[in-house]
Design a protein that fits this description.
The chain is mainly α and 371 residues long. Helix content is 66%, strand content 6%. The chain contains 16 helices and four strands.
Amino acid sequence: MSLSRLWAMSRKEAIQLSRDPSSLALAFLLPMALLLFFGYAISFDVKDIKMAVLDQSQTQHSRSLIEAFERSGYFRVVRHIERYDDTDRLLGRGDVRLALVIPPRFSQDLMAGRPAPVQLLLDGADANTATIARNYADAIVARYSVTVLGGGAALTIPVEAESRVWYNETLESRNMVVPGLIAVIMAIIATMLTALTIAREWERGTMEQLAATPVHRLEVVLGKLLPYVGIGLVDVTLAVLAGVLILGVPFHGNVLLLFGMTLLFLIGALGLGIFISAAVKTQVLATQVAMIVSFLPALLLSGFMFSIDTMPIVLRIFTYLIQSRYFITVTRGIFLKGVGVQTLWIEGLAMIVFAIVGLTLATRVFKKEIA
């Protein structure tokens, strides 16, 4: 290993990169654009649910129940209907997500102290929204029942749970999405960038010149990797600033720990990209392979979109081979929980293993010989 040759390779790669506008845009503009776009677009919060109301009671009690739904902030009454058959038509066309049916004897049953059932009809085509809407509606009806019972509430509901949310107190999905997005975007960008490096040498005919030099293949791999490590750290810095200052995500952890873990993650992801580039030798194929091995696993199998605990056992085992799984745990833990090395050491160790494997594969596959 010669530091002078390593520096020469890094300088050569930096000069090549500076002369490639498409790679510069991919390196600096695309990560920020994706973070801001998906940071605003992706939301698991269910609010402003459109609902229809069939009020067959037309009393003060029924109107107060409808007002309870509207005041909650989760529902918006968009249609007052006159016939029961209209509920099927509105739900079928997707005009509303929920229909509230209040029977004619609703007020009389309440005044007489009898149970007064109401009907909630939900559009189950979107199962997640329907489940959340039903939970909201059940909570609103339960709270309304306590209000109606008044002084007898304590006798009817002897135990009341008082909950407290830790870490993400406002339960905003953006606070969970943005740290995960940083991990997913950097996994894609890092792999895509270095997937073009060696393939570019082959396609431009400069590999012959590189093969004639005394530089070792490990020096080639590390020299091509170092400029992109710097770019990755800059991208993460900009992403963290955008997440905190623009998207309003809280940051409770240690900045140095985040960048230390990011460095480990980038080495592994960049090493994977160089391995792909050395193996396929064409930029088009390298880009396609890099997209498949980085984008789909990072998005679907890392725990970003879907909880790993709910996946089948085979997929849960496979997720241990996805580096983004560990980095998402790191970003969310540092952003929201402020945890330290004593909590994230397993993830850090896993990313060290990925970094070693990535560099080893890239070095072994890369050949200086010209066929």
